[in-house]
Amino acid sequence: MDLFSLPRLGVVVPPENPTAEPEFHRLVGGALNVYTSRFPVLPGLGLRDMLERYNAVLADTLAGFGGMRLDAAVVACSASHYLLAPAGDRAFCERLSERAGFPVRSSTQAILAACEAFGADGLTLVSPYEPWLTDTSRDFWRRAGLRVDEVVLVPAGDRFDPYAVTRAEILDRLYGRPLPGDGALLFTGTGMATLAALETLARDTDRLLLTSNLASAWWALREVGAWGPGTAAAHPLLARLAQVPEAA
């Protein structure tokens, strides 16, 4: 296949995020071409103010793709969209899509679409965020109609830093821990590197496994008509997801 005939996915990421692009490239394989635009660097702002500023400049950041034709775009920053609550997030994405001329979804909306498609009504939330932001995340999912059975915090050593969490820290927090219910395991945060840990977990659990980047890749493939067992086999986590019966 001609490389440049593939559908084009735009991804918007925070400037310091080292994880989203490598995970997207690994997940979509040769099914999509991935292009990125980064939020501006905002020195001196606290986390909440920075996240609110990301929402304020998102339309302009998407416009940074210029005249490039995109087939879809994902906003790979879950935390900023938690601040909007589910209804506000959905309306925001609709406005962005209308302005851009192609479908735009936040990673949070992609997760909600995946939960609906695969019939997940409950989840265990695995979060690398500071407690206040984890609480905001939990409230977002509850307001979206999902049952949150448990929250598992995953700090990086003695601090909360999604970009520094290791595979070992994720697995140490989950293995040997009884998890209630039978809902999905949701790993939030596009900056927490999850693929290696999930490949290990996938061998030991039948639960639905979702992450911000995995759900976003699934949504993008489906949106451009490239979702299916053959395409999904490019990565084992998508191949596993393709085996889950979709809800009517």
TrEMBL record:
Gene3D superfamilies named among the record's database cross-references: 3.40.50.12500
Pfam family, one: Amdase
The name this protein goes by in its record: Arylmalonate decarboxylase
